[in-house]
Amino acid sequence: MEFDALLLSRLQFAFVIAFHILFPAFTIGLAAFLAVCEGLWLRTGKEVFKRLYLHWVKIFALAFAMGVVSGVVMSYQFGTNWSVFADRTGSVMGPLLGYEVLTAFFLEATFLGVMLFGWNRVGRTLHFIATCAVAIGTSISAFWILSANSWMQTPTGFAIDPETGNFYATDWLAVIFNPSFPSRYVHMMLAAFITTAAVVLAAGAWQMICGRSSEPTRWQTRMAAGTLALLMPLQIWAGHWSGEVAHEYQPAKVAAIEGWCETGPVQGTVLFAWPADNACGLDGVTLPNTSPILFASAHGDLQGLDAFAEDERPPLWLVFWSFRIMVGAGMALLVMGLWGVFKWWRGTIAEPGLYHWLAVPTGALGFVAVISGWVTAEVGRQPWTVYGHLSTADSLAPVSAGQVATSLLVFMIVYAIIFTAGVVYMARIATRGFGDDPAPPPEKGRRAPGTPLGSVDDPANVPEDIVAAE
Amino acid sequence: MDLPLIWAFLIAIAVMLYVLLDGMDLGVGMLSAFASSDEERNMMTATIEPVWDGNETWLVLGGGGLFAAFPLAYAVIMPAVYLPVLIMLAALIFRGVAFEFRHKAVREPTRLFWNGAFYGGSLAASLSQGVILGAFITGFETSGREYAGGAFDWLSPFSLLTGVSVMFGYVLLGACWLILKTEGELQLKARRFGLWALVAVAICFALVSVATLAVDPRVTERWGVSMTSIEIAKILPLSPVPITGLALSAWLARDMLRIGGDSAGPDWRPYLLAIGIFLSGYVGLAISLFPWLVPFSFDIWDTAARDNALGLMLVGAGVMLPIILAYTIYVYSLFWGKVKPGDGYHA
Description:
The complex is a heterodimer. Chain A has helices spanning 5-44, 47-80, 83-109, 111-117, 124-153, 172-176, 181-209, 215-249, 251-258, 291-294, 316-346, 354-362, 365-380, 392-395, 401-432, 452-455, 464-469; strands at residues 158-160, 167-169, 269-275, 282-287, 384-386, 390-391. By secondary structure, chain A is mostly helical. The longest helix of chain A is centred in the N-terminal third of the chain and has 40 residues, at 5-44. The radius of gyration of chain A is 24 Å and the shape is globular. In chain B, strand 1 and strand 2 (146-147) form a beta hairpin. The chains are: A mainly alpha, B mainly alpha.
């Protein structure tokens, strides 16, 4: 493997997008959680939901800011490193990504300001509407990104200009709602909710272990475990749906995921595999004849790796193992959800024990599943950027390996410094608990609505009655 | 409807708003290096804290808009200015978080680090933006639909000159903003820095203007001015642009020179005049380069996305841009007036 501009550009894209996706995945789920908390507070009048809201909104502000900062870098990658892709697909991808940018900034400019800075400045209903608008808005942002990415996976509704070779849309609805979009969007949204639930669960468990348990801690733990128990079965179904679509449109990806060597009418499920010196390159432990159940909707022969030329197969091991890591993380999340609900039912969820010690590292599993899932999807569609029409190698900008190595190094250093600081700060708030919030900072004067980083310590977010009590 | 022309206009507006707004807060960032105390530095940053991230929005709208509306231009320009774009992004990230982190740092060394990241980031971002502008004006070597030059083609005496010009220009905007937003000692200081920045800007703009004429015969042709001859018929209708720039500079110098005097003009005038100077430069540039979007290889229509893509986006932009603009005006009006000591929200 040579570290040329192509490989380095791919590594750089993988690095910056993997870093970026952590924050949107978390904020999409957190925005929904905040909307639920505020809604429950307005409906039931229970103080505990208000305290949960005011606690998590600080973390939301930080995560949102990090998402914006890391997202700016993303958009420039298309030009600096993948300029041929930008030129060839601009007339299709441009509007999809353009609408994402407009949605994100529209949000940042309006409802986010009310949500972060308006607690004491607008009425309850208006504030709740703003929170819901932010939650819906982040989902719309994800809608456009997933639509753009899914079009690259399963392109439809386009034609190619014979003169320039450029793609252009012939049917916008077919472009936006391309075949893999519905299943992948549902899969990603559920992943975002689950990732957030895992973090909330871990923070609650940690507070209980440290003996800082209070009413909001117990509620957040219950809500998180309940969310996991409810959504993980749905997520397994959504993942399966996504797999069926991939099997129809990207059989090479599925062959690599499953580790199927030979094309045949019936396939098994490869549990584990290792490199071997045979035609297929792998040997493994297989449950035989599972495809009639798992791929019930498939017709005819199921293609194995032998159906594809060597240079049209995705990198086998990366796809194979990242898929299994994702599934493993998902199963662990399902178990933690069901176990938590069981403890809730038994009334023992607030008693720190083995469950809580396991719940703390579970907080990272959502992120692990998101990243490994995206690796499966993105590495699995190699060697294409626009599946079947534009290869990754042909998408590359005319840049030198030296330039890309420099930028990759710079991004790694900058991200390491900035995001370590940010994540440490978020973790500090999340684990602090509710009983021992430090005294509110001194009155700080007029603030801009809509500066996420600045709202973390904003006195306007500390309700007057709590300030008075302290 | 000429959709590419409409989009070129929209993106030109977004870039101009970016230069005027973020240029101002980058300028304040650079000037904060000369603050004599932490208190003074906090006063300076307090003038821009409510607005800076809104200002940066226009960079993303301009950059994202260029990709969406003129993908070929994006595809040629970005690889050509790879390294300066990288420096700009890294600098903007550092500077953005330094706004907050420098207040959170407890120990002296980390506080100094984030202070340094703040003005160093502002400086590096300004310089790299100016260098990118210079590389843009000189044009790009292309073959087919790709950039065909080397990794360091952006580096030239001309691009370094534009880099320094933009840096001084931003310092001027920042100093004039501080005159508007502060009082007393700090305002006096801002006037002094503003005066020096104005002198530097005047020299730089004059040099850039002359050098731009030498960049390409097509630019010379448009203005009707070359080293050996002047075509009155061409230069005359265009002459109001540079003359306005010169007149505004003279007016601003007059305002600045009355340091502390009772007869000094209103505090808002220097900022307005500085904006006027920038606008005249911007319009002059537009006259020189229109309709090139990748000078001197592709024009607006060569690089535009398909009409059905441009039309689809125009619907969204038509709804969102007025809202974003209205919100920007609202935030600025909300924080109108002088900043007082301790007004910074970090106290």
